[in-house]
TrEMBL record:
Recorded superkingdom: Eukaryota
Protein name: Cadherin-related family member 2
Nucleotide-binding as UniProt keyword: no
Gene3D superfamilies hit by this protein: Cadherins
Length: 1307
């Protein structure tokens, strides 16, 4: 109600303003200007353009807090840059532009200046300290240091790329030792070594951007180089080292304990650590002689003795180990060892010593040292003869003169002996020699004693050794026996070594070697039969075989005894041999006898003798018959050896292989001990006579034969004759009986007394089962003897029917069966039955193939092992647990029957049959939700009860009821934006439907939702199957339903009615979705109700992101403006204005009120306008004249040519001289001005986003719009005709003149 009264109060002022002067107005596009930040100071930035209906001179200005950036030429509106722009400091700002005509108050307007980024900044490293320390053991690939360089520019101009320009020291291995990653991390590319490579590295780093436009060129900006210092920290990973390669020193053997000998020194190889080193003796050839202190000085630790080192070159080897005080990086001791040579020098600290050894083998050990020695010598030995068995060595371990000494002899018997040598240096063998042979007498004394004295030539110290000398006796007696003859006896063939006598001994009174007696047999008869022990004199048998009484009964031997001096004596041995049973009986001649079977008798005497002593048991003989195969038919006399048969002999009872010969063995034995015997063979040949008939192997033969098979072998008969000679056992066959003309019989000799007859059909004869099913024949066997009888046997020949029919499968047994999956069934599930009309058919069922299908589609070999088919047709479940309905629902077993006995000339297989096995489903799969790449958004004002707001899809691999899914909502929670959770039950419901085995759960709204709530509905949905048997299985999923309230509702104005917008709705939403990357939810499309915007329509929509957030109107404007392709398409589809619903609705009452007030003002001002017509006509004339001049200028301007002067922001109009800024040329805005309304005053926008007009870039294609005309075409307007007649330029831009307020028709 306030607006009408306010309009009435302002009415007089409006009347005065209209009648006086009209204030200028800025062009509609003077809202936004875009400037590059590298625009030079003083350069032309843009032009201010305004229009004044009164054609007054205009004055332009810029004010506001950011006006210092520009200077403006007040008269022309040219704006130049006064202060440099910086995108990074201020990427947009607002200035106040003003224009004044000198009559009215200045007109002001906010202009938004958008600063475009340019690549005017180089990356800058953010790190403050560029130094670091790393361990030399740092693993390859580890991060050494991280740098960060920032570039304030945007896009590729702000994308930083790092590089290592140089590595110091610049060596071959350090050049690629480090690498810098894209994120600024510097990593180690190789191994470090503080001691072997470098302890310090310096890296020159540089950061460059990826390039961008700057000063009309593509420029890459790089930072100033920075230097990263990397210190390598030494780690204790090396062992210490001795400063010298070897150490050698000398020390006297009498050096006192604690005396210094040598100093060794070792240092830590890790130069950066220099860990202190401790020393120790870890090994020594003489432990305990030396030790070492912490200062590395080796000192004498005990008594030294050079003489103990003679085999070691008088040197002691000491291993010194240097150990660092701290463990190395591996937790072990860092140490090094070296061998030190210490030479011990001699002093005279020993006297000569005696040793019981030879000089070449003596080791001069304390065990070999000895003061008492023993030797031997024969009495009255010659002068200078040495004492035997005396091994004496004298030794002084000192060197040079310290080791020189004298030898002399002492003791009670020193006059009889001497010593050699008399002077010794170091060591020598000592000999004691006979000096006076007369004093060496065994009969006077058997043992003599002397002393050998060794005196040191320097110190005078002496050692004494006693030598005990044993004298040897001389042989002067001869051995003698007590008797001259000895009588002895022994059994013949006594074993070798058998003692004949051990009691015969000789005597010799001498001692020693002279009294030792040796026995021997002098050459003669019997020395090769007997032998004597040389020491004991025992006589034994030497050769048992030669000791034979039958050859020689008595032996005479001479036994000799010899002492050690060669003197000897002898005696005679007379040895008699005793008899033993050592000769076997001897049989004279051979025995072979011939007799006829059953007629002749055997009688033969065995001749034998024995060579042992007569009339003794050793020569008494006894006869016996050894057991044999035929010995029971004979007997032998034990005393005289006569052999006789006990009954008639039968040739056929003898093995045929023996040829009638019987071999008997007769044993001839003596009666001695042990019993000796001899065996003799007696051969008796029994001659054959024809006394046996032939005999068949069986009395009756039965042979089958197949019909229609000529020339085949029917059967074989066999007969034998027991006679053992060919003349008596030869067999021939003959055939008789009914039907013999159909057969032939051929005889064959198999062996002695054996023959066979092969019964067969002639080659041109075959039997017919239907004509005669059997034949009975008689076969005869006879000997060649014409007087002999014959044998007979019966043959039954059966004609067999031929198996010529193939088997068949019983169709009833091939009817389909059903088997449940997943181990539900086991064992036998079906029986395939096969039949054959042949009588001898032997059938088996074979599995030919297995076909696996799922829903009629072959799935390969998945089911090949599920079932097995036995030969008897039994079908078993083979892999019960492997049967899976979801992979295969039908198994087809292809089988056939096979007759094993079918004749090879006929078909043995039946036709293939199929046994279908349907796999029944078991509820073994739980439902599962299918992935959905969807975001569910609830717009409360759009959704109504029972309307779907979301959906889920699920599948169950089971079938039937097992795979039927029922959805339910378990829980609904509302999660507000502040995180608070509130249960919401009963607001949603879900329905279940299915399509192509996919179950769909549609979530629907039960009741209206509160549109003021902002947050997310968290809905938990459960999918459960419905098995007929067993428990149900289920799955759950949680959905987020995002809410979008009405504050995000955006209204888009189009320059067409709602029907046209509806027809293009798909293209419009596609372009909007492409520009915003959102989902577009259309609320409504309606025509504009205002008459001023007749022909337009509104589209209300929400623009929602996948995460549930939505675009506001301002965000939508910026987003669309950033995608020029989509913007161009939307303009072509008629998009005019972007705005919110509230702003557009709030502007509508204002516009309507303004229209009412305008109508009142028009009625009141009609009279005033008529009064001022004359004044206005003059001004109109001047204005139209200016338009004609502009037309002349337009003819000289080629369409599409861009002038070189600056553009008016928001338009393509330029400030060329003669150009009229009122021309409505094609602009680079949204095309809002392209609509043909009655006047500029009618083009008042209902949008609150006038400042959101979008500028297209210069390289985009111009949008061609034709002005709308009224239904009745007026006369052509001259200026429009002129402009339309111009030749188009290369740009193809089309100029139009549609300013209705300026008409030149009356010119």
């Amino acid at each position: 109600m306030v607006w009408p009264w306010l309009s009435c109060l302002l009415l007089p002022a409006l009347v005065v303003s209209v009648t006086a002067n009209v204030a200028p107005t800025f062009l509609r596009n003077m809202t936004t200007v875009t400037l590059p930040e590298d625009l030079p100071v003083g350069a032309e930035a843009f032009w201010l353009a305004a229009q004044d209906l009164d054609q007054d001179a205009l004055t332009y200005g810029i004010s506001g807090s950011n006006a210092y950036f520009f200077t403006v030429t007040a008269a022309t509106g040219e704006v130049k840059l006064a202060s440099p722009l910086d995108y990074e400091t201020q990427y947009w700002f607002t200035i106040i532009i003003s224009v004044s005509d000198g009559h009215n108050n200045p007109v002001q307007k906010d202009m938004q200046v958008i600063v475009e980024d340019r690549n005017d900044n180089a990356p800058v490293f953010q790190n403050t300290g560029f130094s670091t320390s790393i361990s030399e053991t740092l693993p390859v690939g580890s991060v050494v240091f991280s740098v960060l360089a920032e570039d304030k520019d945007t896009g590729s101009a702000g994308a930083v790329v790092y590089s290592i320009e140089e590595v110091i020291p610049s060596t071959g291995d350090s050049r690629h030792l480090f690498e810098i990653l894209a994120n600024g991390s510097i990593i180690l590319n190789g191994s470090l070594s503080y001691n072997n490579k470098s302890a310090f590295y310096q890296l020159e780093l540089k950061a460059c951007d990826s390039g961008g436009p700057y000063n009309n060129d593509f420029v890459i900006q790089c930072s100033s180089p920075v230097f990263l210092s990397i210190s390598v920290v030494d780690q204790p990973d090396l062992d210490p080292q001795f400063v010298r390669v070897s150490y050698l020193a000398s020390v006297a053997e009498d050096a006192p304990q604690g005396a210094s000998v040598l100093k060794v020194e070792a240092v830590d190889s890790d130069k950066g650590i220099n860990d202190p080193v401790t020393y120790s003796i870890s090994n020594s050839t003489r432990p305990g002689w030396f030790d070492i202190g912490s200062d590395g000085v080796i000192r004498v630790n005990g008594s030294l003795d050079r003489e103990q080192l003679l085999e070691e070159d008088e040197e002691v080897q000491v291993q010194v180990t240097a150990t660092e005080m701290h463990l190395n990086i591996y937790g072990q001791e860092a140490k090094v060892s070296i061998w030190v040579t210490l030479r011990v020098t001699d002093v005279n600290d020993h006297k000569p010593e005696f040793y019981n050894c030879s000089l070449s083998a003596c080791t001069f050990t304390p065990q070999e040292a000895q003061n008492n020695f023993t030797g031997y010598v024969e009495e009255h030995a010659s002068t200078r003869i040495p004492i035997d068995d005396l091994t004496m060595v004298v030794y002084d371990p000192d060197k040079g003169s310290n080791g020189t000494f004298l030898l002399s002899l002492g003791g009670p018997d020193a006059e009889a002996f001497s010593v050699s040598p008399s002077r010794v240096a170091g060591s020598a063998d000592v000999q004691v020699l006979v000096r006076a042979p007369s004093l060496v007498d065994y009969e006077t004394q058997t043992v003599m004693l002397v002393q050998v004295v060794a005196t040191d030539s320097v110190s005078g110290n002496a050692s004494v050794a006693s030598v005990t000398i044993h004298l040897r006796d001389i042989n002067d007696h001869t051995p003698t026996f007590p008797h001259s003859v000895y009588n002895l006896s022994v059994f013949e063939h006594s074993t070798k070594g058998f003692v004949v006598t051990d009691s015969i001994h000789a005597l010799d009174p001498d001692t020693g070697e002279g009294g030792r007696i040796t026995y021997s047999l002098l050459p003669g008869n019997g020395v090769d039969v007997f032998e004597v022990d040389p020491d004991s004199g025992t006589v034994t048998v030497r050769d048992s075989e030669l000791l034979d009484r039958e050859k020689q009964a008595v032996y005479y031997l001479t036994l000799q005894a010899t002492d050690g001096g060669g003197l000897s004596g002898s005696t005679t041995l007379q040895i008699f041999l005793l008899d033993i049973n050592d000769n076997e009986p001897v049989v004279s001649g051979s025995y072979s006898i011939f007799v006829q079977e059953e007629k002749d008798n055997v009688s033969v005497t065995i001749q034998a003798q024995d060579n042992d002593q007569p009339e003794t048991n050793n020569s008494l003989l006894h006869f016996s018959l050894l057991a044999g195969p035929y010995s029971h038919n004979f007997s032998v006399d034990p005393d005289d050896g006569t052999l006789r048969n006990l009954g008639p002999l039968d040739r056929e009872a003898i093995d045929p292989g023996l040829g009638g010969r019987i071999v008997l063995t007769v044993r001839v034995a003596d009666c001695g001990v042990p019993v000796l015997s001899t065996e003799v063979n007696v051969t008796i040949t029994v001659e054959d006579i024809n006394d046996n008939l032939p005999v068949f192997t069986q009395p009756t033969y039965s042979f089958p034969v197949k019909e229609r098979d000529p020339g085949v072998l029917v059967g074989v008969v066999a007969a034998s004759d027991a006679d053992q000679t060919e003349a008596n056992n030869r067999i021939s066959f003959s055939l008789s009986g009914n039907g013999t003309n159909n057969f032939m019989l051929r005889g064959t000799v198999l062996g002695s007394g054996w023959a066979e007859g092969r019964l067969s059909l002639p080659a041109d004869v075959s039997l017919d089962y239907e004509t005669q099913a059997s034949f009975t024949l008689t076969v005869n066997a006879e000997n060649p003897d014409p007087q002999g009888a014959e044998a007979a046997a019966e043959i039954l020949v059966t004609v067999e029917d031929v198996n010529d029919e193939p088997p068949t499968l019983d169709s009833v047994s091939l009817q389909g069966i059903r088997v449940a999956e997943n181990g539900s069934q086991h064992g036998l599930v079906a029986e395939v039955v096969a039949r054959d009309v042949d009588t001898m058919a032997q059938l088996e069922v074979q599995l030919v193939n297995v076909i696996c299908t799922k829903a009629g589609v072959d799935v390969g070999s998945l089911c090949h092992g599920w079932f097995s088919v036995l030969a008897n047709g039994s079908v078993f479940v083979n892999q019960s647990e492997a049967i899976d309905y979801e992979t295969c629902d039908l198994v087809t077993l292809v089988v056939r029957a096979y007759d094993l006995t079918t004749d090879p000339h006929f078909q043995a297989y039946s036709d293939n049959g199929s046994l279908p096995i349907t796999i029944e489903d078991v509820n073994d799969n739980a439902p599962y939700f299918l992935p959905e790449n969807k975001t569910f958004v609830i717009i409360p004002e759009l959704v109504m009860p029972n309307q779907q707001v979301a959906s889920v899809r699920a599948r169950d691999n089971d079938s039937g009821d097992n795979g039927a899914i029922l959805f339910s909502i378990l829980q609904v929670d509302f999660i507000a934006k502040d995180g608070a959770t509130t249960p919401f039950q009963g607001f949603f419901q879900i329905s279940t439907s299915s399509e192509d085995n996919v179950f769909i759960g549609n979530i629907e709204l039960v009741t209206s939702l509160d549109s003021t709530l902002q947050g997310t509905y968290h809905v938990t949905v459960q999918a459960q199957d419905s098995p007929s048997v067993g428990p149900a299985q289920e799955a759950q999923i949680a959905l987020n339903l995002f809410t979008v309230d009405q504050s995000y509702r955006v209204r888009l104005q189009f320059s067409m009615n709602k029907e046209e917008v509806g027809a293009n709705l798909k293209e419009i939403t596609t372009a909007l979705a492409q520009a915003t990357r959102t989902t577009v939810y259309t609320v409504s499309i309606q025509d504009a109700e205002s008459t001023q915007v007749r022909g337009r329509s509104y589209l209300d929509a929400y623009f929602v992101f996948p995460n549930g957030t939505a675009l506001t109107v301002n965000e939508l404007s910026v987003t669309i403006r950033s995608d020029q392709d989509s913007l161009t398409r939307l303009l072509q589809l008629g998009l005019v204005v972007l705005g919110s619903q509230e702003s557009q609705e709030s502007d509508t009452p204002t516009v309507l009120s303004g229209v009412i007030i305008g109508l009142v003002v028009v009625l009141l001002l009609v009279i005033v306008i008529m009064s001022a017509a004359l004044v206005c006509a003059r001004k109109s004339y001047h204005r139209k004249l200016s338009a004609m001049k502009a037309a002349q200028e337009a003819r000289r301007t080629v369409a599409g040519v861009m002038p070189s002067v600056s553009a008016i922001p928001g338009t393509n109009m330029y400030t060329t001289e003669w150009a009229n800024p009122m021309l409505n040329l094609a602009t680079k805005d949204l095309g809002f001005e392209s609509q043909a309304f009655s006047s500029d005053l009618d083009q008042i926008s209902f949008s609150s986003l006038d400042d959101n007009s979008v500028d297209l870039e210069k390289d985009k294609q111009k949008i061609k719009k034709k002005p709308l005309h009224s239904p009745t075409e007026p006369d052509p307007e001259p200026l429009s005709v002129v402009l339309a007649g111009r030749k188009p330029g290369t740009g193809g831009q089309e100029l139009s003149f549609t300013e209705a307020g300026l008409n030149t028709t009356d010119l």
